[in-house]
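Structure ticket #2291
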Amino acid sequence: MNGIQQQWTELHSYVARRDIVFYYVGYFSQTIIAAMAEAVKLRAEHTGAVGQTRRKLFSSFIEMAQNIVHYSADLHEKEGKVTEPSMRHGAVFITQTDEHYYLHCANPVDADMAEKLRVKLEHLRSLTNEEIKSAYKEMLRAETPVDSKGAGLGFLTVARDASAPLEFEFSAPQADGAQTFYLRATI
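Resolution: structure written out below.
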């Protein structure tokens, strides 16, 4: 073996050892999310996930991908213009270990967004499962928050579906203040 074939074999071997169910890094749009969602649905069935786990995995995946589309600081531009509909850069992957699935996502955010995310996620981590479910129901009845590009349910949905508190980190700020936001949910 040489070159491309060897690299492919090494990558395939790595993926198999890490129990990677799904992996994507690149630009996200609503069309791309729809295609990925179908692949995630099929892979969840293939890995033997039971109905409720598949539902949680699917809804959390959609929310994480939507957050990338709405909040990633890296917009796709062509000839100096933002493409419409907008496409934003990020990564999402799903791994499986024993009886748990782990959803990971990462995307660049500006300093203001990093602080908003930190506050929101630290608050979520302080809530019990019952408090998360109650907050979710309240948010369903409330008006959409001014600074939200969705219904404001994204992180609540992921936290509600997770079997452990959400984990998150931010990279060190770059010269322009941008950071990479990392989120992990256990299903």
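Closing remark: The CA atoms of residues 25 and 125 lie 27 Å apart.
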